[in-house]
Write a structure and sequence with these properties.
The chain is an alpha+beta fold. It has three domains: 276 residues, FAD/NAD(P)-binding domain, CATH 3.50.50.60; 105 residues, Flavocytochrome C3, Chain A, domain 1 (Alpha-Beta Complex), CATH 3.90.700.10; 90 residues, Methane Monooxygenase Hydroxylase, Chain G, domain 1, CATH 1.20.58. Helices cover 32% and strands 19% of the residues. Strands 1, 2, 8, 9, 10, 11 and 18 form a seven-stranded mixed beta sheet that branches. A hairpin with a 2-residue loop joins strand 9 and strand 10. The longest helix is centred in the C-terminal third of the chain and has 22 residues. The radius of gyration is 22 Å and the shape is globular.
Amino acid sequence: MIPRYLVDVELDKLPVIDKDVIVIGAGIAGLFTAIRASRHHSVLMITKKSLLDSNTRYAQGGIAAVISDEDSPAYHRQDTLIAGAGLCSDEAVDVLVHEGPKGVHSLIKMGTQFDQENGEFALTKEGAHSQRRILHANGDATGYEIVRALSENAIANEKIEVWDDHFVIDLVTQDGECCGAIVQKPGGERLFVRGKATILCSGGAGQLYRYTTNPEVATGDGVAMAYRAGAYIRDAEFVQFHPTALCYPGAPRFLISEAVRGEGAVLRNIKGERFMDRYHEQLELAPRDIVARAIVSEMEATKSTFVYLDVTHEPVEMVKHRFPTIYEYCLKYGLDLTSDWIPVAPAMHYMMGGVKTDLNGETNIKRLFACGEVSSTGVHGANRLASNSLSEAIVFGRRIVKRIEHMPTLQKEPKFYNEVERNSASMQAVVERRLKLQKIMVRYVGLKRSETGLKKGLEELKRQLPIFQSILTEREEFEFANMLTCATLMTEAAITREESRGAHYREDFPARDDRVWRKHTVLHRTKGMTEERIEDV
C-alpha cells in the first residue's frame, strides 16, 4: 500500500512559515487564483521550477467562452456535454459556460491581450465546437500570453511571495483538515508551511508517458499527494491523447494545435490518402479520442510511426499569420507548414480526471482545494472539449477565492504520524525506473487498452512499490514516487471500467454501456475503489 507520507519528519522541529493562502504550482490556475486571493490575503506561491513552467504556457488553441452574439451558453453547454460522453456534471458545466465570459474579462483586466480583427475579438472554432468561441493571442501562443500577463502581475504584487525551485513533498492533515504542506528548499532543507487554505494547482501528469506535449514538470505531484492525504481521485482512467504532435527525428513532441485542422488542414496516411472519412462524419474535426485512434489505426495498417497533417492548400499568408509559433517551430527542423506535409502522431496531452472537488473547488478534505488540470470538477467528463481547460481554471479559481473569504483562520497544531519502516537500501537509478514506467504506460495504458494488457501493466508497476520503503531525499525520487502513484491509479481505474467511453477505449469492451457504466470511478487510499452514480443529465 502507498504510505501516508513520503518522508519521516518531526513537524515540531521544522521551521514554520505562516501564510493565509498556499498555492502549489503556477500555470493559469495557480497564477490567477493567487492574484485574486491576494486582494484579502497574504499568498505564498510555490513552484518546483519557475512561474513560466507549466502546461498553460504551451496551450496554443485558446480559451473557450461565449463572446459572440451568435453563440450562447446553451450551445457551449451542449458541445461540452456531448464531448464529455455522459460523464459531465450538469451543474459544473452550467457554472463553466455562464461564468466563463466574466473570467475572460478578468484576464483582459490583468493585461492579457487577445487577438482582435476590426475592433472585435478574433474568434476561431475547434474540434467538436458548434460555434466560433475560441479567443486566441498572437495567433497560436495563447497560453504564453496569459502566463506572461499573469506572472508580471504576480511578481509586481507585494502580497504574493513566490518560491521558485521549491518542492512540495506532502500535504499535512489533522482530523480531516489540511493545515499546510512540507516543502523542500533547493538546498535540501525542509520547512512546514502553514495556511488557512491550501490550493493545488500543480497541473497534469504527461510525463507518465514516453510521448507527451507536457513539460518536464508534469509528473502528477498534486494528484499523488492529495491521494496520500485522503482525497478522492475521480475518473483517473480518462487520459486525453492529442492526435497531432510533431513526430520528427530530433524534435520534441511539439503540439500542432487542433486549430490548424479548424482552419482547414487535413490528415493523410503515408500513402498520401485522406482517411478521416472512414472513421467519422466530422472528419478531421471529430472529437480528439476518435481522431487519435483513427491515426493509430492508419499507422498500424501502413506500418508507419506517423501520419501527415496537410495545410498546404490554404493561403500562405493566413497560415503564417494565424500560426506563427507553429510555423517558426517547424521551420527550425526544416519543415515548412505552408508547403510541406507535417509528420504527426498522438501524444499524451491532458488528464480529465483528478482530485475530486465540489463547485467551489474544495475537496473532501477541509481547507484543501484543487484547481485546473489537477482537479476533477466534473466539467470534462470522459473527454475534454478543446480549450475548456483554460476557462475551467479561471472560473473555478474565482470560486475558490470566494469560498476562502468565508473561512475562519486555522486553529490546529497538527501532529505528524507515519506508519512505514524505511530503509536506506540503494535504489536503481531513478532515470531507468522512470523510463520503464513510461514504457509500461505507453504499451498497456495508452490509446487502446484491454484487460490482459492492463493487468500485466499493473503487475509491472506494483514491482516498483518497494520504493515507498526507501528513504527519499532528492526531487527526482519524490517525482518518481508521485508518477508511480498516478500510474497505478490510472491503471486500476482503467481495469475497472469495462466499456469504451470518451478517451477510455477497451478493445475487449468496444461499446459504451450506459446501463452499467454511466458512473464515475473513485479511488481512495484507505477505502480503495468505489463508484459514484451520476444524477441525470
